Structures are given as C-alpha cells and as structure tokens.
UniProtKB/TrEMBL annotation:
GO BP: dTDP-rhamnose biosynthetic process
Cited function: Catalyzes the reduction of dTDP-6-deoxy-L-lyxo-4-hexulose to yield dTDP-L-rhamnose.
Gene Ontology MF terms in the entry: dTDP-4-dehydrorhamnose reductase activity
GO cellular component labels: cytosol
Protein name: dTDP-4-dehydrorhamnose reductase
Length: 287
C-alpha cells in the first residue's frame, strides 16, 4: 500500500514511519510543510501523493496548554481531523486516526470499552472527542484507535522526564490517584500495522496490558534503570494543581483488538524494559 502519514515527526508518527515502511511505501507530512488546519493544504498533499491510506498522527498534545489555547487545540484536534476525513471520503481513501483515554471521565473502576459513554474532563479531551465525531460524521472509511500514556524514542514523555528529574532531585513527588496503562509507541505501531493489514475499520482501544498509577510507573522506571538513591513519594492531583483536570481512572479495555487481530499487547512492564534498553544504547552511543 501507499501510505501518507500526517505528523510523521511526532512521537507516534515517527515510530509509525519505521514500522509501516517495512511492508509499505510510506510518505510523511508534518509542520512546517503542512498545516492540517488548512483544508486546501491537506487536499493538495493528498492529491499530489495519491495514497491508498492516510494516517493522522498530528495533534495538539499539550494537555495543560489546551486549557488556555482552546482555539488552537480545537483547530488541530477537531477541525483538521474533519478536513482530512472529508477529503478522504471524497477520494475513497481510508483514514487512520488516534484518540485518547481522556474522552472518558474516569468515574468507572473497570476498563473502558469502545462503546462506553464519553464525557471528557478537560479541553484536550473535548477537542479529541470532537475530532472523533467529525471523523465519524464525514462518512469516510476509518480506523479510530484510542490509546493512552504514550512514550517512545522521539519526543517528550514521562519516562524521559522521570529519568531527567532523577539526575538532579533526590525526592520526586508523583501522583498516585490517576490510574491508566503506559503504552510504548513501538508496540502501538505494530498494532496499527496489524489492524491496517487485516483491513479492520471502526473504533479500537489499544494500549499495553496491565495498569498502574503514575507513582507506580515512576517507581518502576527508576527500579528498572538501577536508580536506587532517589525516593519517589506518592502525592495527589489536588496537591499538584495542574491547569487541566485529569481522569482518576483511564484504563482501556483492549479485548476487541485481541479478538479481531489475534495479537495480544504485552504487559507494560515488559515494554518499558525494552524502551529502557533503547535509551541506554542512546546514552552509550553518545559517550
Ligand atoms: N502522547 C500521549 O500520551 C497520547 C495519549 C493518548 C493519545 N495520544 C494521541 O496519539 C496521537 C499521537 O500523539 P503524539 O504523542 O505522537 O503527539 P506528538 O508527539 O505531539 O506529535 C504530533 C505531531 O503533530 C504535529 N502537528 C501539530 N499541529 C499540527 C498541524 N496543525 N499540522 C500538522 N502537524 C501538526 C506536531 O508538530 P510540532 O511538534 O511541531 O507541534 C508533531 O509532529 C495523537 O492523536 C494524540 O492525541 C497521545
């Protein structure tokens, strides 16, 4: 297949480029060569590349900044998605798009399934839900993949942030009242490949398996990295008082993905170990 990835320099987009290039002809478009909030720019890109499938890995992902930069956030996460969906519908191209656990309010205590009621708690979640609606209403063939707590080789992420803070701070306060599932973007990219190659459409939840709080995640990152002289202290979201409200429970039920593809997502601790060895190799190469 000829695949066009929008946002191919982002954390997930760059991983998708690598994964999909193994079996397909892949092109990428990102800022500055394209701004997906421009309908004409999107149409021009799709017309000139003529892909069989388009993947939208762009997003305005700074969850706290979304609270004050609402217009920009909705332009990318909702309006831009609508543009791509309408163009793909008109040209008969399937569109793969990503959404988030933050479309749910987190009041449940069991993993969210694809058809569960959406009720976002913050502007980022609202904008992503609006993007989902525009994608579905456009009527193009689509694959909508909700994922959560991503980390990967490129871009800012929680694992790198904890390792960086551990270099200077002997004590780290990390919230223990938000539960989810950390997901390695390399594993998610493999799953996207299986879904695309299997011809699947509709909504899928895809994360690594298992669950933890950010506090438990931070403890595991340090322990698995052999950093034993930094203390991690559990704290609460109230004490941290970040601009955007976060869901207390955002574990996604990924059974549909397993049922339809036959591929199980590995446990988050196993994926984390792989990622940490990738980071160690980077450090070795630099020194
Ligand atoms: N990160 C997570 O924890 C997480 C969790 C759940 C779901 N997701 C979803 O997963 C997808 C990928 O996220 P990610 O973490 O890989 O995001 P990311 O690293 O922030 O990458 C997004 C890419 O989109 C680009 N972009 C932003 N605005 C654009 C525009 N107007 N036109 C064209 N490109 C634009 C960004 O460029 P700049 O860097 O120059 O802005 C960046 O290269 C998103 O749909 C996100 O909502 C992410």
């Amino acid at each position: 297949m000829k695949i066009l990835i929008f946002g191919h320099r982002g954390m997930l987009g760059s991983e998708l480029m690598m994964r999909l290039q193994a079996n397909h002809e892949v092109a990428g478009q990102d800022i500055p060569e394209i701004d997906i909030t421009s309908y004409d720019a999107c149409r021009q890109a799709i017309l000139s590349i003529k892909p069989d499938l388009a993947v939208n890995a762009t997003a305005f992902t700074d969850v706290d900044a979304c609270e004050t930069r609402r217009e920009e956030c909705f332009a990318v996460n909702a309006l831009g998605v609508g543009h791509l969906a309408l163009i793909c519908r008109d040209m008969g191209i399937k569109l793969v798009h990503f959404s988030t656990d933050y479309v749910f309010n987190g009041r449940r205590k069991t993993p969210y399934a694809e058809e569960d009621f959406c009720d976002p708690l913050n502007v980022y979640g609202l904008s992503k839900l609006e993007g989902e609606k525009r994608l579905q209403e456009a009527g193009c063939d689509h694959l909508l993949i909700r994922t959560a707590w991503l980390y990967g080789k490129n871009g800012k992420n929680f694992v790198r942030a904890i390792l960086a803070r551990a270099e200077t701070d002997p004590v780290l306060d990390v919230v223990d009242d938000q539960r989810g599932c950390p997901t390695y973007s390399a594993d998610l990219s493999d799953a996207v490949g299986f879904l695309i190659e299997g011809g699947h459409s509709g909504i899928y939840h895809v994360t690594n398996s298992g669950q933890c709080t950010w506090y438990e995640f931070a403890c595991r990152i340090l322990k698995s990295s052999g950093i034993l002289d930094v203390e991690v202290r559990p704290t609460t979201s109230d004490k941290l008082a970040r601009p955007a409200c976060r869901s207390p429970y955002s574990v996604l039920n990924c059974e549909k993905y397993f049922r339809d593809t036959g591929h199980a997502m590995r446990h988050w601790t196993e994926a984390l170990n792989d990622y940490l060895s990738v980071i160690r190799k980077e450090v070795d190469l630099k020194s």
